[in-house]
Amino acid sequence: MYSTFAKLSHFFSRLNLYCAILGAALLFFIATIICLEVTGRALGASSRLWVLETSEYSLLYITFLGTPYLLEKNMHVVIDIVYTNFTNTWRLIFQALNSIIGFLVCIILAIVGVIVVVEQYGLGVREITVMRPHSWWLTASLPLGAGLMAIQFLEQFIRTLKGKAL
Amino acid sequence: MEWYYIIAIILGPLFVLMFVGLPVAFSFLAVNIVGSFILMGGLPGIKQLILNSVDSVSSFVLIPIALFMIMGEAMFRSGIAVDLMDTLDKWFGRLRGRLALMAVGGGVLFSTLTGNSMGSIALLGSSLTPEMEKRGYKKPMSLGPILGSSGLAIMIPPSALAVVLGVIAELSIRRILIGIIIPGLLMALLYIIYIIGRCRLQPELAPTFDVPKVPLSEKLSASVINILPLTFVIFSVVGVIFLGIATPSEAAATGAFSVLILAALKRRLTFKVFGDTMFSSANISVMVLLIISGAITFSQLLAFTGAQYGMIDAVMSIDISNGAIVFSMIMLVILMGMFMGPLPIMLITLPIFIPIVIQFGFDPIWFAAMYLVAIETGATSPPFGAALFVMKGVAPKGTTMGDIYGAALPFVICDFIAILLLFFIPEIVTYPVDLMFE
Predict the structure, then answer these.
(1) Mutate to test the interface with A, among B57, B62, B258, B291 (most CBs of A within 10 A)
(2) Contact A59 B33 (CB under 8 A)
(3) Which terminus of chain A, N or C, has fewer Cβ atoms within 10 Å?
(4) Per-residue pLDDT at B372
């Protein structure tokens, strides 16, 4: 049982890392295309409208791909002035409660997100922009990230039950 | 339902979740989901929340947040920041309080190159405080200047927090970035006046010491090698905005590339430095962007309930001057800064404050500049300002929180004076903006 948990935990940890690396690569991609756009325009070339849109969509994927890794590494912003003054027992209790709340939030976002994606796919909805991408391509980033975060919160909960502080 | 009940029902759980240790972004998301379900018609409300969340992050105005991070990370990881400090060191000579003044000079220069105040504290704190201690500097003159001047990173472009403010408050980011330059320099000037004045009154706080005389030729060559190339970086960010070559979002990209190019020319851009810079920048950006997404949808929920407008009506009917109300808002931001980080404060207060300021007929850019000074003041204010804890992390062993509080206090007072000057002389902010855009 423990070995299954450890294996799953390791698998998702690697997946989170790869997603975060992909996010970092997308960030460099954005910086590059915008820089080329500015340089090109300064040299007299015409503006490429796809640069703006592609950057916006990339930012969306950077956010939702990277956030499960941050959660795993406990790097999200936390207001800890009250929390740090709890005794270890209370800290574990709140850690468990937070994991459950986080899990519920993310699983709801993932499930409803999938429903929205399926609806958009079925209706063939497109963005009203120059590139006119299918909307579900963009919306899918949210349930994808939320699903991975839900798994991360679940893992945190199990670790808390074992008495491990984050 | 009355607006104050709605505010209490929405804000109450938000604060509870934040204070029991749920990450800020998820606290917003939790309240948003429950609020959307109850107030926006069940499942369709949550569907709308998802669409709004996606829309809120895929916005071009948020690009600088991620790209300014690349600038800061590349500066610190490639060692360009350390070169800068070494060069400043050569110029200050035997001046009393030279290391404290160097901290301010370094703080200002780093501010023009990065938007990250915590990074500045970490670098200035770890590089300067050991030397200050060795030279007999007392805590008020070793820790204080670093704490104060590091905060300038949010006052002098490029400033990631200024961009966040512009996005949440729906103000012109370009105008904010230009408007905060003079206030940032004003703060640096107040710090310098304080350091020189205090060193004269209490010379024992910053003893003079012999430094090897550096020939002028060496100073000049160090400046040419280490400082002159930075004008390329500054031009790539501020210059291109001024000349109308690029928007602030685009300028963040040219700035990021200019630092990477500079690091490559100095042969410091190894694969590891590049990889770490990108990975770390992406992580910090994700952290900020997720909170922004939660907060934007939160303010949409607040607007949907009508509570925001109820609150604005109530504030506008208070029988004190509009100026006093605005000033109280700024004081509230400082007070909140003593307990909370900059982002949550901005996300909670701006959707409420900005409409009120606009309704009163004040210039929102002027308010934004004061607001950012207040945010910086709060971050360095005891007992829980975030900067104080970063300082504790890099300060020499044996430094107590009491030492840090004592050192920070005079700089908090300098910030407060800056706020008063901005409040009574709005032209400090509005004149350069008008000059630039009219």
Answers:
(1) B57
(2) no
(3) N
(4) 93
Report how far residue B49's alpha carbon sits from residue B33's, in angstroms, rounded to the nearest whole number: 7
Which positions in chain A touch B30 (Cβ < 8 Å)? Answer: 101, 104-105
CB contact under 8 A, B58 and A59: yes
Distance CA B208, CA B181 (A): 32
Q: What is the least distance, in Å, from the CA of B193 to any CA of chain A? A: 34
* Euclidean distance between CA atoms B278 and B295, whole angstroms: 25
Question: Number of helices (H) and strands (E), helices first, in chain B?
Answer: 23, 0
Cβ-based contacts under 8 A for chains A and B: 176
Residues from chain B that touch A94, judged by Cβ atoms under 8 A, are 20-21
Nearest CB to A101 within list B17, B19, B66: B17
ipTM: 0.90
pLDDT of residue A73: 87
Q: Which residue in chain A has the smallest CA separation from B46?
A: A112
Residue in chain B nearest A32 by alpha carbon: B253
pLDDT attached to residue B158: 72
DSSP letters for B4-65: HHHHHHHHHHHHHHHHTT--HHHHHHHHHHHHHHHHTTSHHHHHHHHHHHHHHHS-GGGHHH
Cβ <8 Å between B70 and A94: no
For residue A80, name the pLDDT band (cuts at 50, 70, 90): low
- Mean pLDDT for B43-52 is 89
Residues of B in contact with A104 (CB under 8 A): 30
- Enumerate the residues of chain B whose CB falls inside 8 A of the CB of residue A108: 33, 46
Interior/surface letters B42-78, b for 16+ CB within 10 angstroms, e for the rest? eeebbbbbbbbbbbbbbbbbbbbbbbbbbbbbbbbbb
**The predicted structure's pLDDT at residue B11:** 80
Kindly report, residue by residue over A109-161, the tens digit of the pLDDT.
999 999 999 999 999 888 888 888 888 998 999 999 999 999 999 998 988 88
Nearest-CB residue to B286 (from A66, A95, A112): A66
What is the b/e burial string over B301-339, where b = at least 16 CB atoms within 10 angstroms of the residue's CB? bbeebebbebbbeebeeeeeebeebbbebbeebbebbbb
- Phi and psi angles of residue A134, each rounded to the nearest 5 degrees, phi first: -65, 135
Q: Any long-range contacts for B237-245 (C-beta under 8 Å, 24+ apart)?
A: B237/B71, B237/B112, B237/B157, B237/B158, B238/B112, B238/B157, B238/B158, B238/B177, B240/A38, B241/B157, B241/B174, B241/B177, B241/B178, B242/B436, B245/A38, B245/A41, B245/A42
List of chain A residues whose C-beta atoms are within 8 Å of the C-beta of residue B240: 38
Look up residue A164 and give its DSSP letter: -
